[in-house]
Amino acid sequence: MREISQKQFNAYCYARQPLLRVMSNEIKWYEAGNRKVLATLILDKADQDYNFVILVRDARRLFRAWNVSCSHPTIEDAEKELAEKIDVLVNDGQDVYVQGDEVKPPHDILLPVVDEANQHEYFRVLANEKRMEAARNLIVEAVYSYIDVDGNYIKEFQTHGFDARLWELFLYFPL
């Protein structure tokens, strides 16, 4: 388990229950197992005690709450239990933790759905060039939760609509 910045955490888990910000303050963020597990340490505003939320990937590859712990009097107590729980998850041999409400498989935006001759030049750069790895990782992460209402998003992203669809994704994925 290693501490990460809030920006790093938000790149993989940017959605929160709105009430979380009213009831608590996130104060530390963690990742473990090569981003298999994320966690946040929070301070409960009402009780002034420390809690944590552990997040793992569901069948759609979204990070979702898996374990919530509360009522730790000190930050050290919360971090100790958090580390123990994360160690179990990192070493359990699973990559996906089915929540039971996943109805669609994850989107794979970089898997070509059109032949290379019809692919947008910038899509080919994004999908294939090593220097674009960081951008690919963030885009793939955002698309796991993106809802493609008309069923054309990936095809258009890979062809004539690359610029517009990238802008749409940028607006959807607040960092």
- Main sheet strand line-up: 1-2-3-4-5
Distance between the termini: 23 Å
**What Rg, in angstroms, do the CA atoms define?**
18 Å
Share of β-strand residues: 15-25%
**Gross morphology:** elongated
Number of helices: 7
Which residues sit in consecutive blocks of at least 5 with pLDDT less than 50?
A: none
Secondary-structure-derived class: alpha+beta
> What order do the helices and strands follow?
EHHEEEEHHHHH
Oligomer: single chain
Rounded average pLDDT? 89
Helix content: 25-40%
Number of strands: 5
Largest sheet: 5 strands, antiparallel
Describe what this molecule looks like in 3D:
- With 175 residues, the protein is α+β, with helices and mostly antiparallel strands.
- Helix content is 38%, strand content 22%.
- The chain has seven helices and five strands, in the order βααββββααααα.
- It has helices spanning 6-12, 18-23, 75-90, 121-128, 133-145, 153-158, 162-172; strands spanning 2-4, 24-32, 37-44, 50-57, 63-72.
- Strands 1-2-3-4-5 form a five-stranded antiparallel beta sheet.
- The radius of gyration is 18 Å and the shape is elongated.
- 21% of the residues are buried.
